[in-house]
Design a protein that fits this description.
homodimer, 372 residues, alpha/beta, 434 Repressor (Amino-terminal Domain), 3 domains, six-stranded parallel sheet, 13 helices, 12 strands, DNA-binding
DNA sequence: CTGTTAGCGCTTTCAT
DNA sequence: ATGAAAGCGCTAACAG
């Protein structure tokens, strides 16, 4: 970061100092200067000291363009993400990655994307192995399946290959960086929007998506969002003001879900809000649309195309978004900059919690990703 | 933009094709290829055709690093903005500019910032002249004082100097790009948040800031926001549900303002909401804090430090933000890329309308600007 | 330990 | 109209 506490006027005058200049000042050759800059050893202590002082004083920053050009090494990055379909969350992350790829291709960075089945640990494990076989110089991944992730990252650390996480983080693992959202906080915000002006004693449905076998779908993101939601309720002591009803749907059982929802609506006459903590709120919207049920506040996550349609048409009240494109973009550029420029990164970077209503969705462009 | 409709796997294999490669294929020298790439003329028609075909077929993209390195030209950018104090809106724009400056300094782009008094047309005019005297290669400005802006941009166009606008746009002027917010829309969103759950028949204050002489302070941004606010009310026919009261404060008359507000509060017993369309909502918060008046919903614009404090402490309900840093950052990089790479820009880029509550302000980091 | 040298890919003279 | 050559700032291999 520039030191913005003192915004100083540049004067158009400061000519860039080059390694050659340093060399002249220190009475050595460019090669020697280069050696101390990169700590490559083999320099007499006094020369070293002298050069370092000059470097310091002139605040020397090597020209990255020249640097990249001179280093012939190609870098290979491997990306490990769930399979994505157009318009869904992971697709957007990949979109950001592709955008970054364009930019870093000048740095001789190449990328290969591996996509696993997010419901199959085996698929993840297989691709983790493939990844290692590719002998990448850096890795970007969505850390699904904790145990497998730990195995993979352990191996990467041993091989000294930097990796970054997107979407969710794995504490205690030493990644180069993590880009994602504060899930708990986003659930908290969701509660505020849901309950801010909801008539008391209404019923609110918390809808979950289960896999076959009864396991909840979604990373721990989903669970943390719900925790945040409940934390808000507790904070403002709203436990008695609203009736919270949990509903479990099943990913593959469309008609069963409908029947189940019908039943819920029969049991509860005063449903005024429905929230889902994963990205599938459009399914609820489908249901309500079909039955022409109105006046229910729907809140969901992520700007899937179908979600956005329902937001625009007023069926969904609010969507909370987390900039998947930026996660991918920053994740990849962090790796590229680390490799090409040895540039460090912040270990944890949270995306803003974006609140989208019908009224601000049209302006929501994540420039420069959504250009056109 | 990458064509993200077909996310193709890269294979690590595609070796970058260089000008030299093209030259060999076309049986000419690198110099000739370069001539056709840059349309510099002096190439036999048949050679030209041959080279162009190969360029096309191989989808040749010159290496920007090498390009920048080889071109010795330095670029001078001049930035023309209002004076800024730490923590205010214009400061953030400059912050984004400084950040961009770092990045583009490798492209041999240098920047000089000129700051005018936003209440003095004369000051703007003077600096506009100074700007021209600096013979910049590109200009970034906040278009205050329409007439002066038109004069300046006319001159710039004649000299073929590209310029970009930030904050607000000037229609009908042919700028390289504009980065800012859809003000009307943001007022609309503000109305939704204000009125969504406000008890009917409440009184709402619309507070304006006037300059000496009775002229409203703020660019046309401010006016457009209010229009948007009123448009929402009209759309949902809420004219009779709430009592809207306009209040005019004066920038330099602290105690007069207090008296005036006191009077307003005496006249209206049921004030439940207050909105300001410029960034000074903290002044109202000051007033309410001092008098321990609660239960009034305050909505304002921009993340000035004082605004944010009041948001966090719960005095302000909501702030609408417009990413000033990004405006500065994108504005400057657009110019730099245009100059260094001849890269075109979208003419108009709207920033997202960010809605900040107490609950999501802590996560609101505009990475990579707010790192640390 | 240190200097020299040959590039990286592109642009730009300067001859021919 | 075109090719050859020098050089941007930096790196890396080699020679001393």
């Amino acid at each position: 970061m520039p030191d913005t506490n003192e915004i100083k006027k540049t004067t158009f005058s400061d000519d860039k100092v080059r390694i050659k200049d340093i060399a002249v000042l220190a009475n050595v050759s460019a090669g020697t200067v280069d050696r101390v800059i990169h700590n490559r050893g083999g320099v007499a202590p006094d020369s070293k000291k002298r050069i370092e002082d000059i470097l310091q004083e002139l605040n020397f920053k090597p020209n990255r363009m020249a640097r990249v050009l001179a280093i012939k090494k190609d870098y290979k990055l491997v990306v490990l993400l769930p399979e994505a379909a157009q318009g869904d969350y992971w697709w957007d992350i990949i979109k950001g990655i592709k955008r970054a790829e364009e930019e870093v291709s000048d740095y001789r960075v190449k990328t290969e994307v591996l996509q696993f089945n997010q419901y199959s640990m085996e698929s993840f494990a297989t691709l983790a192995q493939r990844l290692l076989d590719l002998t990448p110089d850096g890795v970007l991944m969505a850390p699904f399946f904790r145990r497998e992730v730990l195995k993979l990252t352990k191996e990467l650390e041993e091989r000294n290959i930097p990796f970054v996480f997107v979407d969710s983080n794995v504490e205690s693992v030493n990644c180069l960086a993590y880009y994602g959202q504060q899930s708990h906080q986003s659930g908290y915000v969701a509660a505020k929007i849901m309950l801010g002006n909801l008539e008391k004693s209404s019923t609110i449905l918390l809808v979950h998506m289960m896999r076959e076998g009864g396991e909840a779908i979604g990373s721990n993101q989903t669970a943390k969002r719900e925790e945040g939601f409940l934390a808000y309720i507790e904070k403002y002591s709203l436990e008695l003001s609203y009736q919270l009803v949990r509903v479990n749907l099943h990913a593959e059982d469309e008609s069963g879900n409908e029947a189940h929802l019908e039943e819920i609506f029969r049991q509860h006459q005063n449903i005024r809000g429905i929230i889902m903590f994963n990205s599938r709120i459009y399914r609820i919207a489908d249901f309500l649309e079909k039955r022409k049920i109105k006046n229910i506040r729907l809140i969901g996550y992520d700007l899937l195309e179908r979600n956005v349609q329902y937001l625009k048409s007023g069926v969904i009240e609010c969507l909370i978004a987390q900039r998947p494109q930026l996660q991918g973009y920053y994740g990849l550029t962090a790796l590229a900059r680390r490799l090409a420029f040895h540039q460090p990164s912040k270990p944890v970077c949270y995306m803003p919690i974006d609140i989208l209503f019908k009224e601000n969705i049209n302006d929501y462009k994540v420039y420069p990703f959504d250009v056109d």
